[in-house]
Amino acid sequence: MENNNVFLTFDSMADEELLRKSRQGSQEAEETLIRRYGRVIRSLARPYFLTGGDSEDLIQEGMLGLLNAIRRYDPQEETSFRTFAVLCIRRRLFSALRKAAGTKNVSLDDCLSLESSLFDENQSRNDNLRGPEELLIDREEAQKRYRNLLLLLSAYEQSVLRCFLRGMSYREIAEITKRSEKAVDNAVQRIRRKFENLPQGDISSS
What we know:
With about 210 residues, the chain is mostly helical.
């Protein structure tokens, strides 16, 4: 019971405070930080999974990116820990995906478009590695692809997709949609196939 109270105390702390305590040797603080970012990692890894990546391997890579952020973050910098952590996670995921593909023709925009431009506006604005014109174009393309995909999905599949890209587990999605985890898994597989077969151009105007 005492251990649970410790975690409740840590849960109320800001990321930077948890990081400070972690560096002072608190294992509970680091574990709390890792648990807090579990869904962030899943949400960042899910678009890769949709385009053919291995979800569990990518989530592990994302976790390594988070641990790297915990080790390297400089609190004297102006950026928040969250911004820095998301950047480290993304870089790790993209590096793993390029390595797995064995080619330089993998596009970061293709991998992140559904997630970064549509489901996490704050993270998109904080990505200072790219110019505003590029971000605007990417956002417009992402929105077009998302609209086109929704036209091919049933209402149930649309609900599953929104939850899925936000990093929810199959169990959480099943609870929200009042379906079984198997039904959720089947829906995800259908969405993947429809996304991979998505035609070029704006089918909403055809």
